[in-house]
Design brief:
The protein is mainly β. The chain is built from one helix and ten strands. An eight-stranded antiparallel β-barrel has the order 1-2-3-4-5-6-7-10. It has a two-stranded antiparallel ribbon with strand order 8-9. It is elongated, with a radius of gyration of 24 Å.
């Protein structure tokens, strides 16, 4: 009987200690915060279509804990060798998989690319980007970074009269420098 009573007392005390613990610790449950940022960079065409470009984008959303950024954004890609332009609308996600600052993070962007092609043709296609982000400098309210990665932009053939203009998908090696707040 004493053993049962002792076991019940220990269980009761353990439960009361667990229930009385403050679980609002900022390190365990960081606050949801507004986030925004911008980046600029260059992309080298890996498909041989002479479509290397300079690009810039801006985004806004939220951050919390291991989610460094989750939101939406828009970007512009200006081809350096011709008059083609692409405007990207995307959902973006950056994470370092832990609740503390780290050197590396994983950026992902998925969306649609509004492509303005040669000879006044335009179309929409899929857009995606991923890679490796490296944090450069960090303060209480900002973080600067470099991203190195892969970018995909879908393009389709265009039929003009009886002629088909061939536009192949684009695959890029991309480098960007940016800042987020």
């Amino acid at each position: 009987m004493n053993r049962i009573l002792l076991t019940l007392v220990v269980m009761f005390m353990s439960a009361s200690l667990c229930l009385g613990r403050d679980t609002t610790n900022v390190a365990q449950h960081p606050a949801l915060a507004f986030a925004w940022g911008a980046d600029a960079g260059a992309s080298i065409d890996q498909t041989g279509n002479d479509m290397s470009d300079i690009n810039f984008s801006a985004y806004f959303g939220m951050k919390r804990g291991w989610i460094n950024f989750l939101g939406v954004g828009a970007g512009a890609d200006i081809v350096t060798s011709n008059s083609c332009r692409s405007y990207d609308l995307f959902a973006a996600f950056h994470t370092n998989f832990v609740n503390r600052p780290t050197l590396f993070f994983w950026p992902v962007r998925v969306g649609v690319s509004l492509n303005y092609l040669e000879n006044n043709h335009n179309q929409a296609g899929a857009y995606g980007s991923t890679g490796l982000g490296i944090n450069l400098a960090r303060g209480k309210s900002y973080c600067s970074y470099i991203m190195v990665g892969y970018t995909f932009r879908q393009r389709r053939n265009v039929v003009v009269g009886e002629e088909t203009l061939e536009f192949k998908n684009l695959h890029y090696a991309t480098v960007k420098i940016g800042i987020s707040f």
